[in-house]
Amino acid sequence: MPTLGFSRAARGGVHRGPASGVSMATITGIGSALPAAPSDQRDLWDGFFAEHFHHDRMAAAVWRHAGIRSRHGVADPRDEDLSTWSTGQRMRRFAQEALPLGKEAVAASLQQAGRTPSQIDALVAVSCTGYTTPGMDVLLGRDLGMPSDLQRLHVGHMGCYAALPALATASDAVTARGRTAVVISVELTSLHVQPAEEGRPDREQVVAHALFADAAGAVVIEPDGAADRTARSAADGFTLVDFAARTDAQHADLMTWDITDAGFRMGLSPKVPEVLAEHVRPSVGDLLARHGLGLGDVAAWAVHPGGPRIVDTVAEELGLGEADVAESRAVLAEVGNCSSATILLILERLARRGLPRGAPVVALAFGPGLTLHAALLRAA
Q: Does the model's pTM come out above 0.85?
C-alpha cells in the first residue's frame, strides 16, 4: 500500500538519525491540568447521553465498552446542553476556558523544570478543539509573563497526534539555536457535543462522544545538559532522540474533524485499527533500527489510547504485554481520550514512575491523515 511519511523507503535513502556528539534536547519539566471534578462515565450516560441517543442499545453497548470510568470536561452536558450552540458560541467558550487550564499546566511544568516564564524563548501551542485570535500562544505568553520577543508557533487541527510534531519542532529549535522552549496542548472536546439526530444514532458519533474528554499538558524542553544548571535535577525527564511519521493518505477519510455550523464533528471509522495495524510495526521498527535498537530494547511505551481497540491493535502488532500498555489504559480509564494532550499525560505518568537513566521509551499517537507519529526518547 503506498504511503507518505518519513520512513526510509519514502525518503529514498537511509536516515541515520542524530550523529554521535550532536547536541540533543531534554524534557526537564512536565505538567498537566484537568477541569473541575471528574464525571463518572455511567452518570454521563444516564444523565444525558442515553436520552440524547434515544436509549439505543448499540449506543449503550459502545458506552459500556469504551474503557473509561471517568473523565473531565469544562462543560458538563447534564448542567448545560451545548449541542444546539453555534460554532461561534463554542469558540467564545473555548477562549474563556482554555487560558486558565493552559496556564496551570505550563506553570506546573516550569516549576518542575526550575524555570520561570521570563526564561522561555519559544512557545508551541497545540489545539484542534478551539481557535481565537490573538491566539492561545499570544495570550498564554502575555498572561504568564513570558518575554515580548518570545518566538511562537500555533499547531492547529492536526488532531490526536499533534503533540509529537510539536515536540519535534520545539526540539529542533532547542538543539539548533539553544532555545528553552515550552510545548502546551489544550483540548476541550466537551465543547463539541453534536445535535441529537432523528432515528438510529450514527455509530461514529456515539463512539466519539463516549471517548473524548478535556485536558491540558505541557513540557519544558532545554538543551541537553542545561538541566545540570537548574534548581532541580532532570532525573525524571526524557531526552528527545528522534521522530518518525507515516501517513496513509489513501485512507484519509477514515478519521476526520470537520468544522460545521454546530461545532466540530468527528468522523471515526471502525476500520481505523485495521489500517493502523499495517503501519505500526514497520514504522516503529524503522525508527528503532536507525539507533541500533529493536522492540525488545524498549523499556517503556506511551501509546495514545484512541480507544480500547487502538491499544489492543498496537499491543498485538508490537508483541507488547499488558504491563507495557498499562499507563495508556490507565489514562484512558481515568481521564478519557484528551486528543493531543493525552500523550503528554502518559509521559507524565512514566516520568513519575521513574526509569533507569538512558532507558529507551517510544511514544506513539494517531490521527487524521490517516497518520501515525512516533518518537524515540531516553529516560534522562
A: yes
